[in-house]
UniProtKB/TrEMBL annotation:
PANTHER family: (WILD MALAYSIAN BANANA) HYPOTHETICAL PROTEIN, OS01G0745000 PROTEIN. Pfam families: DUF1677. It comes from Nelumbo nucifera (Sacred lotus). This is Uncharacterized protein. Residues 100-120 are annotated as: Disordered.
Length: 120
C-alpha cells in the first residue's frame, strides 16, 4: 500500500506500509518491487521479513506458508489489549486462589508490612 512518495536527487523513495503489521518504512522503488516479488505481491517490513525467515527455517516451509503463519501470529498478537490484561488478571487470581486452597488456609495471604525510613 503506497502512502506517500518523495523524490531524491537520484531515486524515488516511497513510504510503504507492511502487509503484516502495518508499520511503515521509506524505501526505494526498486527495493519495494524486490520485496513484493519475494513475498507474493505483499510488501513486508524488515522486522516481519526476519520473522518470516525464522518461520521458514523453524518449520521447513516455503515463503507463502511462512508468511501465512506469521500473519496469523500477528493477528493473534494484536488482539485487544484490554482483553489481554483482563485475561492476565484472571490467570493471576486463579493462581492466588489455587495457592491459598493448597495451603489449607481459608484466608487470603497477609500483606507484608514495610516500615518507612525516618524522615529528616
Amino acid at each position: 500500500m503506497k502512502i506517500e512518495e518523495e523524490t531524491t536527487s537520484t531515486e524515488v523513495v516511497k513510504k510503504e506500509q507492511c502487509g503484516c503489521c502495518g508499520m511503515s518504512e521509506e524505501c526505494t522503488v526498486g527495493y519495494i518491487r524486490w520485496v513484493k516479488e519475494r513475498f507474493g505481491g505483499i510488501w513486508v517490513c524488515g522486522l516481519c521479513e526476519e520473522a518470516i525467515k525464522d518461520e521458514q527455517a523453524r518449520l521447513g516451509v516455503g515463503v507463502e506458508v511462512a508468511l501465512r503463519v506469521h500473519t496469523m501470529f500477528r493477528e493473534t498478537a494484536n488482539a485487544d489489549p484490554a482483553i489481554q490484561i483482563a485475561r492476565s488478571i484472571l490467570q493471576l487470581l486463579k493462581r492466588i486462589m489455587s495457592a491459598t486452597a493448597s495451603s489449607g488456609s481459608d484466608s487470603a495471604p497477609q500483606p507484608t508490612t514495610v516500615t518507612q525510613p525516618p524522615s529528616f
